[in-house]
Amino acid sequence: MEFVLRLKHTGMPLDKIRLYAKLRSQGKETLLQRQTLLEEHAQTLEQSIVQLHSHLQKLNDKIDLYRQNLVD
Fold this sequence. Notes:
Layout: H1 2-9, H2 14-25, H3 31-71
């Protein structure tokens, strides 16, 4: 259950979480399918992190600009 919550917190869509849980309940025969599902989600998550980092940098740049203007 803890891992399913972790998937939810990382933004995995509910339909994919349900698929993962279904595959898990089917046992070792689905290991490759579960691995593929998790690898795809990890790739999506990494892309989101890169994009969020870029957005954060732009926000920080704007905050720095405001701070400079307040000092001047």
